[in-house]
């Protein structure tokens, strides 16, 4: 299993954002939607061995974590609006401490990064990290930030994590996921 | 300069598609919008040395080619709706044989793939091609197809082109562009 977690620092948590304005009313929900896409989509297929965690930290009801499971999602299309509609639905149901399925393969619970880090060991994708092509054995789980840097509190929480870089340019989170999955695909297929 | 050209086999050409339904009314315009994103966006910056050509082959007024120049675009955001709005604007102006600027850095003209191929030599990104990591010198210009395969007529037109693969899995066009640009970034920065 591979896991990606993306922190959405201002991502809306009430489910009332407009599908016609994901960057504004959604608190850059477009960034998270593209991360769902790059985590799960192959051409005409899904990556069923990938989970994508969205950590939503914005108003009005922070923090919530939404999980997309590649093995379970149905009717998900690659466009931003499609994953946004599933996020909106997840945010609209009563939210407890345990993951609850809002639509097939999509889950929501209360809690944010600190809880997730206590459960799953994440490496950090970060342009200051070690070149992932030079890492003999890549880990399974990766944490990324949205368009904002990690906050000082988040940095403290991940201070001990390994950090890997996908390349010499600073990329959007979804692009970094795509590059990383390509490296993993190559290793799994003996292409490297 | 690097150039990407993506064939949108059913992409709408009248500029009347709905920004709320890019996959349906736009004829999978969402695919092309994501290709604009992956061609041009860095984190907090644009790839000013990239041009992205969208070859639109759908009804009601085929064929048209839209060009996004990284060096010239203004106010372009990474979400699909943003590039879609620029495409809609380009399709709505009178369209002649020469590229005409519809908004800064965005151009439109009549004509499709055969005209473009006569002007610019494109390599083809194709999962059956040679592994791009093993290619000593990568070309500048790459052609991709949208969610559909190239048609027999298109295949004939590109029969002589070099073909490169980004990896062992079949990827969406925008993901393939992201992986390719990462390889080019690495070579330009001495990271390989």
From TrEMBL, chains A, B:
Alphabetic keyword roster: Cytoplasm, Methyltransferase, S-adenosyl-L-methionine, Transferase, tRNA processing
Subunit structure: Homodimer.
Listed InterPro entries: Alpha/beta_knot_MTases, TrmY, tRNA_m1G_MTases_N
Function: Specifically catalyzes the N1-methylation of pseudouridine at position 54 (Psi54) in tRNAs.
Protein encoded by which gene: trmY
HAMAP family found in the cross-reference section: tRNA_methyltr_TrmY (MF_00587)
S-adenosyl-L-methionine found in the keyword field: yes
Main subcellular location: cytoplasm
Binding site for S-adenosyl-L-methionine: 125
EC number: 2.1.1.257
GO-annotated cellular components: cytoplasm
CDD domains, per database record: TrmY-like
Protein name according to UniProt: tRNA (pseudouridine(54)-N(1))-methyltransferase
Family: Belongs to the methyltransferase superfamily. TrmY family.
GO biological process, alphabetically ordered: tRNA methylation
Gene3D superfamilies: 3.40.1280.10
Gene Ontology terms, MF aspect: S-adenosylmethionine-dependent methyltransferase activity; tRNA methyltransferase activity
Subcellular location, record wording: Cytoplasm
Reactions this protein catalyses: pseudouridine(54) in tRNA + S-adenosyl-L-methionine = N(1)-methylpseudouridine(54) in tRNA + S-adenosyl-L-homocysteine + H(+)
């Amino acid at each position: 299993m591979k896991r990606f977690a993306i922190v959405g620092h201002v991502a809306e948590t009430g489910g009332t954002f407009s599908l016609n304005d994901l960057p504004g009313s959604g608190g850059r929900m477009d960034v998270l939607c593209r991360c769902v896409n790059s985590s799960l989509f192959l051409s005409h297929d899904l990556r069923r061995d990938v989970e994508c965690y969205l950590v939503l930290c914005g108003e009005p009801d922070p923090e919530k974590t939404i999980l997309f499971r590649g093995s379970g999602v149905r009717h998900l299309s690659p466009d931003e609006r499609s994953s946004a509609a599933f996020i909106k639905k997840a945010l609209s149901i009563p939210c407890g401490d345990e993951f609850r399925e809002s639509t097939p393969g999509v889950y929501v619970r209360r809690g944010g990064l600190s809880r997730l880090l206590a459960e799953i060991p994440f490496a950090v994708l970060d342009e200051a990290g070690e070149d992932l092509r030079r890492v003999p054995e890549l880990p399974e789980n990766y944490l990324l930030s949205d368009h904002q840097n990690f906050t000082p509190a988040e940095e403290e929480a991940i201070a001990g994590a390994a950090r890997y870089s996908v390349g010499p340019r600073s990329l959007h989170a979804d692009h970094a996921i795509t590059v990383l999955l390509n490296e993993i695909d190559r290793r799994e297929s003996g292409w490297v």
